[in-house]
């Protein structure tokens, strides 16, 4: 049909206006049958200009959207909503071999073994002086508790650390204003065995007495970004949901929302929704670090993996850590307080001045805003209303700044524009609500489609937001795009927040389920982007830096192929002497030293994936042939005009055969080349 | 030879030093896939380019049409030329010190010949690389040769090649100009002196 219309249009253009009109009618009637029923109310005619990034032009901002259950991070350009990259973090990625090839498999090792998936919720950019600095992106793995670091010069995952004593790393990862610490709180409390380490055994009926939560303090190396688990604070057995760091006057504090302070263990949708108020936990991280340094910390056995990618070898190695230090709040006065917060709060967001803490009580009818200065005064005045596990609980009124009345239904998250306004998502009433932080008055409402979860203003969680755009990530898609069967993508919407009234600009589909996002002006990241790896800095032990050094060697049942790739051939491309029962490892070095010339490597019957090798890097694919035969291998990434010719054969002989190891690339010519020039036979 | 011409001659010798500070010739390549362009820089003693691996990238592109790979080691000129330039610099300085004005003329003539031989040699290499194509080349365009331009612009398949002398060559030009002025000035002085003696 499209073709027909295209033809019609072409004819119309040739024949003239009357036909053009007819075909126009045709188009109209056709799109009629396909018409979207989705709501387009409030979308101005001229919004296209605001999001149109002309071919060849770049976007104004990078945004990093978490992928939720795909375990990845998606990078989108803002304002165009164009997908720029998918960064695999906790999930295997057959597209480039991440988690399949020998170099990256150790990244996904945990104390539970090889875990090639996770539920990635919250991206947070590294910070300098309270502002995103564009060096690293920290993300959490919710299911098998992990925190990962993505290097924004390569957009690759370079470090993954497992979090011990945690069961569901949801409340994570939250950096302090200069990455002094990344904080990670557990969603599920579990019985902890302080003597033997790790999770202990307990009857579920003993929840109230034996279950505890933990908040991890991960130290970050100032220059390299390397993480190290410094200590944990063992906290009461609630669910820890989300967190955010203070800034300015509250810069020493981090705030955590809690729910299930009822300590229910079953049917939590009811059991955890009984108390009118749960808590916002406030922890003075500087004081905690001081207590830990001053010997207040205990030590317990632990067992967790720390996986790091080496810069030079591009190989990940795992180390297993056997100890963890912990602090008990009851032994550390002044370190932790609880603020009563209505009701089963979800997001906690601190405004750019650092004075106001907005708690999004998803089941509450109002949106409470707490005051940091009042909290300081309440500490001085000891305005407490009892304590929990030795942790003082403030009187609600002593710390409350005020409440936003009738904000909407089901507030989940809030971000700020740097002009004194806050924007909150309302899951149930499906809208974004703009309100003034000082006078707590609602200023504007924008319906969004449908049921927003997180929202993101670039820098909206820092001290100076880039208050021009807002990205809202919706949980329900339904009719927003052409239907694709029962399973739909999630949908994000871009809203212009530069004026008094919000302006809806764009819908764009997102991968899996984004939970949160980060945005940063492009000039903070783009200039540092690596174009290719320098071959002479490649320290991979199996790297081959010139074709003459390529080799095939047998060590017992293992055959090692040290191979090179360059446009448009592999060396060697003829291999013999492999037998059924051997394990072959192809170590492929991409000799290219130019931008955007990756070579892929795939071999028939491989039960893992292909691997995509960036210029100057070495990657290794394990292959165990099951039957005798001659197997082709080839380059998977269209690299050049002769890409289709970039292939070779590996001969697998029956077990016990006497075919010797033999390898070559190109044939020696019998006739010397004309003009007596240096021989370019075979490979050049 | 008076002070001025000695100074000029000295400057002439010194100008040749530019050959060690910047390339003599640059070849620019542009193609749809290379918006950033590829540059090959020809020095008196080496071949470099707009990026570290430019030769490798040139060779990769050229191997499709069967051009022989370019390696700095295959040019004996790159080993000899620096000595010739240094020899010119030293002899130039000696002439300036010794004040033998007639020698300037020989120095200039020799330098001009040297320069011309250099350009000719360069051109012959271009012809050799452009025409001596492997019969096994994957891409063969009947009748097509790939001689890059010696000077100016030329379209070679998807590449637009531009070839221009660079700052290093300016050193030779300056040397010639300074030396020529030095010669002119000292000859004038000489004839003045002679007039004085004869009168």
Domain count of chain B: the total is 1
Q: What share of the residues of chain B does DSSP label as strand, in percent?
A: 15-25%
Largest interface: A-B, 19 and 18 residues
Q: What multimeric state do the chains show?
A: heterodimer
**What is the H-and-E element order of chain B?**
HHEEEHHHEEH
CATH class (first level) name of the largest domain in chain A = Mainly Beta
Q: Treating each run of at least 4 consecutive H or I residues as one helix, how many helices of chain B?
A: 6
The strand line-up of the biggest sheet of chain B is 3-2-1-5-4
CATH topology of the largest domain in chain A: Methylamine Dehydrogenase, Chain H
Estimate the strand proportion of chain A. 35-45%
Give the low-confidence spans of chain A: 1-33, 671-684
Overall spatial form of chain A: globular
How much helicity do the residues of chain A have? under 10%
Sheet of most strands of chain A: 11 strands, mixed
Mind describing the biggest β-sheet of chain B? 5 strands, antiparallel
Outline of chain B: elongated
CATH architecture of the largest domain in chain A: 7 Propeller
What does this structure look like?
Chain B: It comes from Pontibacter populi. Chain B: Keywords: Membrane, Transmembrane, Transmembrane helix. Chain B: This is Copper chaperone NosL. The complex is a heterodimer of chains A (684) and B (199). In chain A, helix 1 packs antiparallel against helix 2. In chain A, strands 6, 7, 8, 9, 10, 11, 12, 13, 14, 18 and 19 form an eleven-stranded mixed beta sheet that branches. Chain A has a six-stranded mixed beta sheet with strand order 42-41-44-45-39-46, with no helix packed on it. In chain A, strands 36, 37, 38, 40 and 43 form a five-stranded mixed beta sheet that branches. Chain A is mainly beta. Chain A has two domains: 462 residues, Methylamine Dehydrogenase, Chain H (7 Propeller); 129 residues, Immunoglobulin-like, CATH 2.60.40. Chain A contains eight helices and 46 strands. In chain A, a hairpin with a 4-residue loop joins strand 27 and strand 28. Chain A is globular. Chain B has 199 residues and is α+β, with helices and mostly antiparallel strands. Chain B has one domain. Helix content of chain B is 56%, strand content 16%. Chain B contains six helices and five strands; from the N terminus they run H-H-E-E-E-H-H-H-E-E-H. In chain B, helix 1 runs antiparallel to helix 6 and helix 4 packs antiparallel against helix 5. The longest helix of chain B has 32 residues. The chains are: A mainly beta (684), B alpha+beta (199). Chains A and B meet through loops of A and helix 3 of B.
């Amino acid at each position: 049909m499209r073709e027909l219309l295209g033809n019609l249009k072409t004819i119309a253009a040739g024949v003239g206006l009357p036909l053009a009109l007819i075909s126009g009618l045709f188009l109209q009637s056709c799109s009629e049958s396909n018409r979207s029923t989705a709501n387009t109310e409030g979308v101005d005619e001229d919004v296209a200009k605001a999001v149109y990034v002309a071919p060849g032009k770049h976007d104004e901002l990078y945004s990093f959207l978490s992928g939720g259950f795909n375990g990845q991070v998606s990078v989108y350009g803002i304002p165009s909503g164009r997908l720029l990259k998918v960064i695999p973090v906790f999930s295997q990625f057959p597209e480039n071999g991440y988690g399949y090839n020998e170099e990256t498999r150790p990244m996904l090792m945990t104390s539970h073994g090889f875990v090639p998936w996770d539920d990635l919720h919250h991206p947070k950019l590294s910070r300098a002086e309270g502002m995103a600095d564009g060096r690293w992106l920290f993300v959490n793995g919710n299911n098998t508790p992990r925190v990962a670091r993505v290097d924004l010069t390569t957009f690759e995952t370079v470090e993954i650390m497992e979090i011990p004593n945690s069961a569901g790393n949801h409340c994570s990862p939250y950096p302090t204003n200069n990455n002094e610490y990344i904080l990670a709180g557990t969603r599920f409390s579990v019985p902890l065995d302080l003597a033997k380490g790790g999770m202990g055994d307990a009857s579920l009926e003993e929840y109230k007495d034996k279950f505890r939560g933990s908040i991890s303090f991960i130290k970050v190396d100032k220059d390299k970004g390397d993480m190290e688990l410094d200590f944990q604070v063992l906290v009461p057995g609630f669910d820890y949901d989300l967190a955010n760091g203070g800034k300015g006057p509250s810069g020493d504090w981090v705030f955590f929302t809690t729910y299930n302070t009822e300590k229910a263990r079953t049917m939590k949708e009811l059991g955890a929704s009984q108390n009118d108020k749960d808590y916002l936990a406030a922890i003075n991280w500087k004081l905690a670090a001081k207590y830990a340094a001053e010997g207040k910390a205990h030590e317990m056995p632990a067992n967790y993996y720390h996986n790091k990618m080496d810069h030079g070898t591009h190989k990940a190695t795992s180390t297993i850590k056997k100890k963890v230090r912990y602090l008990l709040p009851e032994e550390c006065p002044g370190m932790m307080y609880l603020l009563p917060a209505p009701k089963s709060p979800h997001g906690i967001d601190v405004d750019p001045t650092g004075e106001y803490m907005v708690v999004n009580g998803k089941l509450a009818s109002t949106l409470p805003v707490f005051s940091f200065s009042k909290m300081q005064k309440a500490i001085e005045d000891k305005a407490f209303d009892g304590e929990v596990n030795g942790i003082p609980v403030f009187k609600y009124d002593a710390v409350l700044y005020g409440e936003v009345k009738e904000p909407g239904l089901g507030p989940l998250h809030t971000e700020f524009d740097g002009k004194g306004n806050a924007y909150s998502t309302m899951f149930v009433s499906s809208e974004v609500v703009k309100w003034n932080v000082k006078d707590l008055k609602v200023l504007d409402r924008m319906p969004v489609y449908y049921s927003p979860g997180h929202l993101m203003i670039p820098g909206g969680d820092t001290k100076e937001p880039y208050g021009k755009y807002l990205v809202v990530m919706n949980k329900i898609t339904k009719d927003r795009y052409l239907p694709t069967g029962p399973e739909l993508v999630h949908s994000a919407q871009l809203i212009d927040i530069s004026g008094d009234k919000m302006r809806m600009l764009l819908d764009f589909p997102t991968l899996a389920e984004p939970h949160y996002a980060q945005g940063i002006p492009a000039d903070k990241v783009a200039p540092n982007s690596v174009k290719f790896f320098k071959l002479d800095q490649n320290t991979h032990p199996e790297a081959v830096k010139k074709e003459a050094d390529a080799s095939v060697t047998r060590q017992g049942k293992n055959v090692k192929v040290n191979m090179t790739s360059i446009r448009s051939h592999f060396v060697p491309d003829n291999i013999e002497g492999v037998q059924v029962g051997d394990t072959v490892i192809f170590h492929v070095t991409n000799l290219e030293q130019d931008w955007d010339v990756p070579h892929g490597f795939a071999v028939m019957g491989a039960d893992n994936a292909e691997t995509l090798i960036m210029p100057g890097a070495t990657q290794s694919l394990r292959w165990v042939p099951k039957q005798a035969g001659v197997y082709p291998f080839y380059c998977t990434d269209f690299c050049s005009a002769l890409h289709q010719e970039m292939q070779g054969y590996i001969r697998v002989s029956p077990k016990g055969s006497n075919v010797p190891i033999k390898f070559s690339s190109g044939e020696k010519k019998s006739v010397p080349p004309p003009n007596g020039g240096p021989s370019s036979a075979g490979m050049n | 030879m008076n002070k001025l011409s000695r100074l000029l001659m000295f400057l002439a010798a010194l100008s040749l030093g530019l050959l060690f500070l910047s390339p003599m010739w640059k070849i620019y390549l542009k193609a749809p896939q290379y918006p950033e362009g590829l540059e090959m820089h020809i020095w008196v003693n080496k071949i470099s380019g707009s990026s570290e691996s430019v030769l490798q990238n040139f060779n990769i592109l050229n191997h499709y049409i069967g051009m022989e790979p370019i390696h700095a080691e295959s040019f004996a000129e790159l080993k000899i030329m620096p000595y010739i330039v240094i020899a010119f610099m030293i002899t130039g300085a000696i002439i300036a010190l010794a004040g033998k004005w007639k020698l300037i003329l020989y120095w200039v003539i020799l330098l001009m010949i040297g320069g011309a031989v250099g350009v000719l040699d360069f051109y012959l290499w271009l012809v050799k690389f452009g025409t001596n194509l492997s019969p096994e080349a994957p891409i063969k365009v009947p009748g097509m040769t790939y001689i890059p331009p010696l000077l100016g612009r030329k379209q070679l398949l998807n590449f637009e090649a531009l070839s221009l002398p660079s700052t290093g060559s300016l050193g030779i030009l300056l040397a010639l100009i300074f030396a020529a002025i030095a010669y002119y000035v000292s000859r004038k002085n000489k004839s003045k002196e002679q007039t004085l003696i004869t009168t």
